[in-house]
Amino acid sequence: MPRTLKEGPHVNASHGRYLDIDLTTARIAEYQIPEDWKQRFLGGRGLAARLLLEELPPTVDPLGPENLLVFATGPFQGTRVVGGGRHAVLSVSPKTGRVADSYCGGYFGHELGRSGYDGLLIRGASDRPVILALVDGQAQLLPAQDLWGTGTGETEQRLRERFPGARVSSIGVAGERHVVQACIISDRSRAAGRPGFGAVMGSKNLKAVVVRGDVPKQLADPDGFSAAHRAHLATFSDPGIQRFGQY
């Protein structure tokens, strides 16, 4: 017989909070996610869009300090689910002037999901280049003048040497110069592309986000989760999936 969830909330793979960063004032706080938002929007794009609806001004310059930039994870990021590593990035696009979303693979999303927060809400703009480091539960804004003008590959290498085991999302020179095609790059080759969010990050003088964490998510039904995950893994031995991997 199919398993059913135990009594209680059906969605609980959440830390229930975002990290709220104001780059203008260098204020770092927690943004508590209402319980009904968690149940209605789950996480990822849905929850991030609800957050923007609540916090974003009705009209906004995409490259102005009043625009918001959100890095969002869903219920699977920070768990052991294979293939669940993609995170979402949302903001007002400098290409369209409207809220847009982008998705990025790699390991940054999983690390953010293990950070103790479900996402990052970034406001304002710094008056000088900075990085945001969320490492082992501690968040801080650090000077990044020495990284300004470097490409994403070099930026990531230097930051991962500085913060062993961390994952990095960064911009290159195009983002620094507000080129509207600029992407945010993770794991050297994974891109949050299309809407031009690299330019948004550059307009905020935010060179990179560094994340390292080891905070487990509390599951509503750990046994049911494990059973579903085993069934998911079994699909990878299907002949069709095996043949697909040859191409």
Molecular structure report:
The protein has eight helices and twelve strands. The strands form two sheets. It has a six-stranded mixed sheet, with helices on both faces. It has a six-stranded mixed sheet with strand order 8-7-12-9-10-11. α1 packs across α2 (44-55). It has one domain (17-232): Aldehyde ferredoxin oxidoreductase, N-terminal domain (Aldehyde Ferredoxin Oxidoreductase,  A, domain 1). A hairpin with a 4-residue loop joins β1 and β2. The N and C termini lie far apart (37 Å). By secondary structure, the protein is an alpha+beta fold. It has helices at residues 35-41, 44-55, 108-113, 152-162, 173-176, 197-203, 222-234, 239-244; strands spanning 17-22, 27-32, 69-72, 87-92, 99-104, 119-123, 130-135, 138-143, 167-170, 184-186, 190-192, 206-212.
